Amino acid sequence: MRINHNIAALNTHRQLSSASTAQSKSMEKLASGLRINKAGDDAAGLAISEKMRGQIRGLDQASKNAQDGISLIATAEGALNETHDILQRMRELATQSANDTNTTGDRGEIQKEMNQLTSEINRIGNTTEFNTKKLLNGKVNLTEAVSANVKGTSVDSSITIVSSATNGSATGTAAVNQGVTEFHAGKGATVTGDVAYAGAGATPGAVAGANVTAADNELTVTFNGTQKSIDLAILDYDNSGAGTNASDFAADIEAKLNTAFGANSFTVGFDASDKLVIQAANTTDTFSIDGGNALTHLSSTADTASLTAGAAVAANDSFNLNVNGVEKTVTLTNVLGNQGTNGGGVNGSYDLSSAVDQGEFLTQLNADLATQFGSGNVTASLNADDELVFTSNATGNVSSAEVVSGSGSILSDLGIATTDKIKGQDKNDVISMTVDGETVTATLAAGTYDSNVLASTLQSEINADTTVDAKVSFEDGKFTITSGNEGTNGSVSVDDNGFAKSIGLSTGSTVTAGVNEKNAALQFQIGANAGQSMGVDISDMRANALEISSTTGDTKEVIDGQGNTLTAHYMSSNDVTNGTNSTGAEKALDISSAEKATAAIAVLDESIASVSAERSKLGSYQNRLEHTINNLGTSSENLTAAESRIRDVDYALAA
């Protein structure tokens, strides 16, 4: 007999504990009805069972989804049933109006009902919904859609807006100096003189109040390249007394010149201002005179009048001018040929200190420019600094003018240096684009903008000109224009103009954004797993989409049942509303004559066919979903049975 360990008692205790544990498990299974209540009951079976449970619950929910989908489709299809009835009534009215037993007044009454029925179709399309989701307005397919946008290339952070296009021009680097560089022409002959007169303001080739002394009476004359010294051999002349002996004085000089160079080579006289005028007779003649001490100007200082010749613009001198990429040679034929008629106070001379002389010189120079470039296309003028300016009268960036070269010393004679091409500037203050189908034309104020300020200003201008809510932003050096709508109704199209170039949007043609869109149709989850869905597309079933109304009033070509082409018309007034208010927004089909009503019948036939096609499509969706529900139920049932065999308890065994 052992006293320290009661082996029998220990065995009894162990057996009791084991029985209690087994009894507890059996009671748990019997109470729950499940064979697996925790992972310890069957680890592998639990994992398989949970996966099956997920499938079963997914199938059951998919079945519910399909039933909800059927309800949605039935809602849309039921609304279209009413649309069908309305279209049939409208066709009936059009058929009635096509009968010439009706008067104009009768057709007017029929038109009223047509307008109201069209508005009701819009109301059905705009208000039919399921769980607040619009079904027939064409926007049901916009699930998770994003807005269209156009993004430009990188541009400077400062943008200059110009309100008008500018001309290209070329400007002389040196002034045509007043009172120094002048143009003389007797009857075409040219002399340029640099004359120093003190106090009296006389001009080259002319002397006011001249005196000649017998002691100093020699002139040095260069005529057509031949230089001769002429002894006047005349007595003293004192012309200070209001022109005394002036005619004799002129006659003596003329006689001496013609004796030296040939009869009728020169004429000498005084103009209305008592200024001595010496003119060559022929257009090809050139001459210069150095009077030495022969002619003394009568003034307070009695300075000597020097008739030394300066630079001369010879006959047929020319220069090359490049305008808008076209280079032509301009020959000064008008300037030389007509200067003898100058009315500026000095016969045959152009004193550019005189506004009259400037005007005539520029008129004749512009005539020479017109010979080459066409009237008014290129003009010459003097700027405030008395620089000769050639301007291309075309505008914008393509406009330019550039003095390329000249014959002889003509460029220096005219005070011009060859210049770099100076281009005009394009106008870039007008933006034109289409946002969400609406045309935008806005004009920005001229000035220099910070890009962020320009983005804000541009956004305001766009939205002020449309009903859309477009966004304009400037980020990372790029402008982005984003439409206000999402999905297929959102679009941005920027015209390729000066403004587009300014903000980096130009690509050489119209820039159009596509729509980045997900899930282009309603998605019904009809399976237990990801990717097991079906798309349901419901078209826009409003009046404009069915072409029984128009926003523009354009006509519509339609083919009747015999293959004839008919022209359907729309009313000129907006008598059709969106169905939710009294504001006219669209134009109804016009049935005001038999011809128009007949065409309207053909349009309504097409509309009825469109609604029929849509209802047929919805019916096919519904039939499919009914089969889907049956299939899901079968799958759920069989999978539940399999999961039950794994998870559920066998009462006979558990007991």
State the gist of this model:
By secondary structure, the protein is an alpha+beta fold. The chain has 11 helices and 35 strands.
How would you describe this structure to a colleague?
This protein is α+β, with helices and mostly antiparallel strands. The protein folds into 4 domains: 29-141 and 525-537 and 591-655, f41 fragment of flagellin, N-terminal domain, CATH 1.20.1330.10; 147-162 and 427-512, Immunoglobulin-like (Sandwich), CATH 2.60.40; 167-176 and 313-423, no CATH class; 195-297, no CATH class. It is 35% helix and 22% strand. Strands 17-16-21-22 form a 4-stranded antiparallel β-sheet, covered by helices on one side. Strands 24-23-28-29 form a 4-stranded antiparallel β-sheet. Strand 30 and strand 31 form a beta hairpin.
Order of strands, main sheet, comes to 17-16-21-22
Inertia-based shape: elongated
Counting DSSP H or I runs of 4 or more residues, the number of helices is: 11
Q: The CATH topology of the largest domain, please?
A: f41 fragment of flagellin, N-terminal domain
Q: Give the C-alpha Rg.
A: 51 Å
Number of strands: 35
CATH level 4 superfamily of the largest domain: f41 fragment of flagellin, N-terminal domain
Rounded to the nearest angstrom, the distance between the terminal CA atoms is 40 Å
Layout of strands and helices, then pairs:
Elements: H1 7-32, H2 43-97, H3 104-127, E1 129-130, E2 133-134, E3 147-151, E4 158-161, E5 167-171, E6 183-185, E7 190-191, E8 210-212, E9 218-223, E10 226-231, E11 237-238, H4 246-261, E12 266-270, E13 276-280, E14 287-290, E15 296-297, E16 318-323, E17 326-331, H5 333-337, E18 349-350, H6 355-373, E19 378-382, E20 388-395, E21 400-406, H7 410-413, E22 422-423, E23 430-435, E24 438-443, E25 447-450, H8 451-464, E26 471-475, E27 478-486, E28 492-494, H9 498-502, E29 511-512, E30 522-525, E31 533-536, E32 549-550, E33 556-559, E34 565-568, E35 587-588, H10 594-647, H11 651-654
Antiparallel strand pairs: 1-2, 3-27, 4-25, 5-20, 6-7, 6-18, 8-11, 8-15, 9-10, 9-14, 12-13, 16-17, 16-21, 19-20, 21-22, 23-24, 23-28, 26-27, 28-29, 30-31, 32-35, 33-34
Helix pairs in contact: 2-3, 2-10
